[in-house]
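User: Let's play a game. I give you a shape written as C-alpha cells, and you guess the letters that built it. Ready? Here's round one.
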C-alpha cells in the first residue's frame, strides 16, 4: 500500500500564487520605470525658461522638421501628427505627400479645392519654403510646401493664433 502524503496545513506557509502575483506586479513596475519614452514630450515652463522657446525636432517619418515651441506648451508626436498642447488648447501639425510641384497647385486640386475655401489668404515664404496661410471656417491654417510634401499647421483656438504664428514662422526642414 502506498504511503500517504501528509499535507502541510501550517498557517505560516504562503500559497504559490501569491508569489506569482507579487512577481508579476514587481516586473510590471520595473518595466514602467525603465522603459524608454514612446513619444517626444517637451517639459512645461519652469521659472528658469519662462521666456525661452524650446526646439522640437520631428522624427524622420515627418521629415525631421524643427519648430520653436513657446514656453507653457508640450509637444507630442504620434504617427504622422504632432500635437502641441497648452491649457488653452492645441496646435496640430500634419503632412501629406503630393505629386504637385507647387503649393498653389496642390491646394487647387479639384478633389478638395482648398484654395477656394481658404479665406483671408496670405502668401508667405517661411525659411525659404513656399507657404500660404488663411482660415477654413474658425480654424487658422498654415500650409507649407517642401520637396513634394505639404505640411499643415492649424488650430481652432483664437487664443492660440499668436502662438500658431510664432510656431509656423519657426518651421524649418533640415538640409539633406
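Assistant: Ready! My guess for every position:
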Amino acid at each position: 500500500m502506498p504511503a500517504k502524503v501528509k499535507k502541510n496545513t501550517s498557517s505560516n506557509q504562503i500559497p504559490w500564487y501569491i508569489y506569482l502575483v507579487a512577481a508579476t506586479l514587481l516586473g510590471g513596475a520595473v518595466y514602467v520605470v525603465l522603459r524608454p519614452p514612446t513619444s517626444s514630450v517637451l517639459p512645461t515652463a519652469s521659472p528658469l525658461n519662462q521666456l525661452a522657446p524650446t526646439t522640437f525636432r520631428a522624427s524622420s517619418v515627418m521629415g525631421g522638421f524643427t519648430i520653436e515651441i513657446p514656453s507653457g506648451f508640450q509637444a507630442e508626436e504620434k504617427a504622422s501628427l504632432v500635437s502641441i498642447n497648452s491649457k488653452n488648447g492645441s496646435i496640430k501639425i500634419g503632412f501629406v505627400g503630393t505629386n504637385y510641384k507647387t503649393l498653389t497647385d496642390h491646394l487647387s486640386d479639384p478633389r478638395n479645392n482648398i484654395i477656394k475655401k481658404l479665406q483671408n489668404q496670405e502668401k508667405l515664404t517661411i525659411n525659404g519654403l513656399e507657404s500660404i496661410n488663411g482660415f477654413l471656417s474658425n480654424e487658422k491654417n498654415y500650409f507649407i510646401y517642401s520637396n513634394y510634401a505639404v505640411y499643415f499647421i492649424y488650430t481652432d483656438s483664437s487664443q492660440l493664433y499668436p502662438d500658431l504664428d510664432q510656431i509656423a514662422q519657426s518651421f524649418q526642414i533640415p538640409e539633406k
